[in-house]
Amino acid sequence: MPETHIASGKVRDIYEIDDERLLLVASDRISTFDVVLPTEIPDKGRVLTGLSGYWFTLLGPIVPNHMLAIRDDGRSMECRRLEMLPIECVVRGYLAGSGWKDYQATGSTSGHRLPEGLRESDKLPEPIFTPATKAETGHDENISKEQAAELVGADRLAEVERICIDLYATAANHAATRGIMIADTKFELGLDANRNLVLGDEALTPDSSRFWPADSYEPGRAQDSFDKQFVRDYCEQTGWDKTDPGPELPDDVVAHTRSKYVEVFERLTAIPFEAYLEDPSVVLG
Question: Smallest Cα–Cα separation from 36: which of 10, 64, 12?
Answer without folding.
Answer: 10
